[in-house]
Design brief:
globular, four-stranded antiparallel beta sheet, about 35% helix, 6 helices, alpha+beta
Length: about 170
């Protein structure tokens, strides 16, 4: 599968087969794709907590309003970042790496979703984060999808782009 096919097949899923488990090789491949992502700081001040225990997934789902279905994912990748007030470099690095991890799920014929609306403090406590500078910024449930997925609304290229200045449309011949 080439890169453009991955982009075209990339969708968000909200229904997973609760019996499906990720293999160690799949988890390693997803993490390797995240590890190899470009980094602004070359430090990678983030980590992933891979949650695959049923009880733990259910606890996390309790503190993720409107996303109770995440408990059926094969695993939830919690994105944990060292938060620094002076800049957002660590957050940006984690987003870039997580984007590569999510694209890798497509190649593995898996589905994912990206969740950022949850009780960060409660989930941090569940996952044992004691350092106040560490924060769970996203949850990425991954698994065998049971639905067709959605790409959501997509603006046109003309709506997304400007030429040299804001308000100057980019024109193609």
């Amino acid at each position: 599968m080439d890169f453009f096919e991955v982009v075209i097949r990339n969708k968000r899923f909200e229904s997973f087969d609760s019996e499906h488990m990720l293999t160690s090789d799949q988890i390693k491949q997803l993490l390797a794709c995240a590890q190899l992502a470009p980094s602004l700081s070359d430090i990678q001040n983030f980590t992933y907590i891979i949650i695959d225990e049923k009880i733990l997934k259910e606890k996390i789902a309790e503190f993720s309003p409107n996303f109770e279905w995440i408990k059926n994912a094969s695993a939830i990748f919690a994105v944990v970042v060292l938060i620094r007030e002076e800049d957002d470099t660590n957050i940006i690095d984690a987003i870039i790496a997580s984007s590569q991890l999510m694209m890798a799920t497509v190649i593995n014929n898996l589905g994912y979703s990206l969740i950022v609306d949850f009780d960060q403090k409660a989930i941090g406590e569940i996952l044992g984060l004691k350092d106040p500078t560490l924060e769970v910024i996203a949850l990425i449930p991954v698994g065998k999808p049971l639905d067709k997925g959605t790409q959501g609304y997509k603006r046109t290229i003309a709506e997304l782009s400007n030429h040299n200045y804001l308000g100057h449309p980019l024109k193609f011949p």
